[in-house]
Amino acid sequence: MDKAHHEAHFQSSDLVTDIVIGMSDGLTVPFALAAGLSGVHDIGTATVITAGFAEIVAGSIAMGLGGYLAGKTEIDHYNSELKREEYEVEHMPEREKEEVRVIFAEMGMSESTQKLIVEEMSQDKAKWIDFMMRYELGLEKPDARRAAKSAMNIGFSYIVGGLVPLTPYFFAKSPAEGLRYSAIITVICLFIFGYFKAQVTGQNKLGGALKVMFIGSVAAAAAYFIAGLLNHG
Questions:
Q1: pTM over 0.85
Q2: Which domain holds residue 36?
Q3: What is the number of domains present in the chain?
Q4: For a Cys staple, 178 with which of 84, 172, 173, 230, CB 3.0–4.6 Å?
């Protein structure tokens, strides 16, 4: 007796995508900045915290703006293609019908079925245009509020991620001590975030976690040693 087959797929929503984008840079960039400043002699924790906060604010705004512009670009592209399809359906209906027939032919439908569906579809121009947008161009109608939502989600995620490596400096007596605790906490968070990111993108979870952790650690180490070399120079 065959058992019912159940496929479990993790559906990555726009919110999850935004969080991944924001957290990825939020954990890494402030961590590298704080590490770099900690490698400079005669600098206090207050300076590291101040610079860290300035970077988090600037970074969250920049990342949020990037998300907003990406969302607006998606909407503008969709609307542009929609106007083109509306024009073609109105002024070149036979050519558009042929394009629909080709789509159904590629699906394996018979010629008679193709003609029947095409003629039926052409009676409703709104559905016809929507079909062309989806199956000819591969475009789904974007949420009109997507750009603003993306900006807020990415910006907030960046702030949350940035506070992780910066928080230990509030309780440390020196930048060196703050860096030790920051490194431990941030590396753990990078591993957890990398694992989650790999799950979202369908990659190997352990490999994804180690890769994100490695990249963040290398960035912070490079910033620390370069700052130290320049300070001695």
A1: no
A2: 14-232
A3: 1
A4: 172
